[in-house]
């Protein structure tokens, strides 16, 4: 599982699995999606929890997901993160155009799918983001936003541990989003334990909610 899923979706899934199937030994490894899929192909994993995007070229999609069956779980929309002192902090909804002139904080590697999603959303809104700070750690991103040095886009799964000195605002129907999926090997036998974990992941994903008030503010 990737870090934000490991902090939000996975803990309740692991707890439910252990409660219902105490006879099964369960192990967990944290990885970003691409190395997790490589481990899945190497039979080092039975299930990988990954995020995916729908703007991939066909060759890139085949490279990443060839031979993989994706079981879609939940959409993970991006929210605009602002320091609590920001002039837009009290508006229930804002547009990306409203913060076009701000300094932005985004993932460090521009090839990172989340960084591409961030950049693509800004260019679709009519501007090129001015990147001032880069970090792949959403806790660091939140700290920089809280310090007032920039704004950022945060996926909803990253708001499970949201700071009280920032606010996040919905971008409505225009919000970019990651799609969260469980991955298994296509056309291969799935053990009863794997089937059970897939069912539990679906169950947890259906019940997933943003932290109370996160779409408006951290109370």
Describe this structure in words.
- By secondary structure, the protein is an alpha/beta fold.
- It has two domains: 103 residues, D-Maltodextrin-Binding Protein, domain 2; 98 residues, Periplasmic binding protein-like II (D-Maltodextrin-Binding Protein, domain 2, 3-Layer(aba) Sandwich), CATH 3.40.190.
- It contains seven helices and seven strands.
- Strands 1, 2, 3, 4, 5, 6 and 7 form a seven-stranded mixed beta sheet that branches.
- Helix 5 links the parallel strand 3 and strand 4.
- The longest helix has 16 residues.
Lay out the secondary structure.
Elements: H1 3-7, H2 10-20, H3 33-41, E1 48-52, H4 58-65, E2 68-83, E3 103-106, H5 113-124, E4 130-134, H6 138-146, E5 151-155, E6 166-169, E7 177-185, H7 192-207
Helix pairs in contact: 2-7
Structure at a glance:
It contains seven helices and seven strands. It has 219 residues and is of the alpha/beta class.
Given helix and strand content, the structural type is alpha/beta
CATH fold annotation of the largest domain: D-Maltodextrin-Binding Protein, domain 2
Number of helices: 7
Overall number of strands: 7
CATH architecture of the largest domain: 3-Layer(aba) Sandwich
Give a quick set of tags describing it:
219 residues; alpha/beta; D-Maltodextrin-Binding Protein, domain 2; 2 domains; 7-stranded mixed beta sheet; 7 strands; 22% strand; globular
């Amino acid at each position: 599982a990737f870090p934000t899923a490991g902090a939000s979706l996975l803990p309740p899934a692991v707890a439910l699995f252990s409660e219902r199937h105490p006879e099964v030994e369960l192990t967990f490894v944290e990885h970003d999606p691409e190395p997790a899929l490589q481990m899945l192909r190497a039979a080092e994993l039975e299930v990988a929890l990954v995020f995916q995007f729908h703007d991939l070229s066909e060759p890139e999609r085949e490279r990443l997901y060839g031979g993989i069956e994706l079981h879609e779980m939940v959409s993970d929309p991006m929210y605009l993160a602002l320091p609590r002192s920001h002039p837009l902090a009290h508006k229930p909804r804002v547009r990306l155009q409203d913060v076009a002139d701000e300094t932005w904080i985004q993932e460090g590697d521009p090839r990172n799918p989340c960084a591409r999603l961030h950049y693509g959303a800004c260019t679709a809104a009519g501007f090129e983001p001015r990147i001032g700070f880069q970090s792949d750690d959403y806790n660091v991103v939140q700290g920089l936003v809280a310090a007032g040095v920039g704004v950022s886009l945060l996926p909803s799964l990253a708001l499970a541990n949201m700071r009280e000195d920032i606010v996040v605002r919905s971008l409505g129907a225009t919000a970019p989003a990651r799609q969260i999926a469980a991955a298994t090997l296509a056309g291969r036998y799935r053990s009863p334990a794997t089937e059970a974990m897939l069912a539990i992941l679906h169950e947890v994903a259906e019940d997933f909610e943003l932290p109370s008030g996160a779409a408006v503010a951290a109370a």
